Amino acid sequence: QVQLVESGGGLVQAGGSLRLSCRASGSTDRIKAIGWYRQAPGKQRELVATINNDGKIDYADFVKGRFTISRDNAQNTVLLQMNSLKPEDTAVYYCNSRTRGPVYDYNYWGRGTQVTVSS
After folding, report:
1. What's the rounded Cα separation, in Å, for the pair 108 and 98?
2. CA–CA distance, 64 with 62 (Å, rounded to integer)
3. Model confidence over 43-79: pLDDT tens digits?
4. 67 vs 60: CA distance, rounded Å
5. CA 116 to CA 10: how far, in whole Å?
6. Longest C-alpha distance within the chain, in Å?
7. What secondary structure letter does DSSP report for 54?
8. pLDDT in tens, 22-50
9. Which of 23, 34, 47, 52 sits 20 to 30 Å CA-CA off 113?
């Protein structure tokens, strides 16, 4: 199993910045990709950004040019630098790992961290 703990959320004004951090523990050697999703009230959870073991990064179109994901393998940490935040970025942000299992891949989730952007 993999445990994921997020930190770094909070309240910020539009145009401001926040940095989210997610630390993984447990079977981290089985992680194939790690990243961030978000869920706003009344909406489905959606991809924000992920990075795999080869360093390939995927960003949602709505964060390109504003958010940057990075990974520190030695610390088993993934960071999300969020700049030029908009009120529509308000959501709970969840860390996710896609983890290799004996037969199938598994998704693990953190508990989430609230990001609120005021206008």
Report:
1. 7
2. 6
3. 999 999 999 999 999 999 999 899 999 999 888 999 9
4. 10
5. 6
6. 47
7. T
8. 999 999 999 999 999 999 999 999 999 99
9. 52
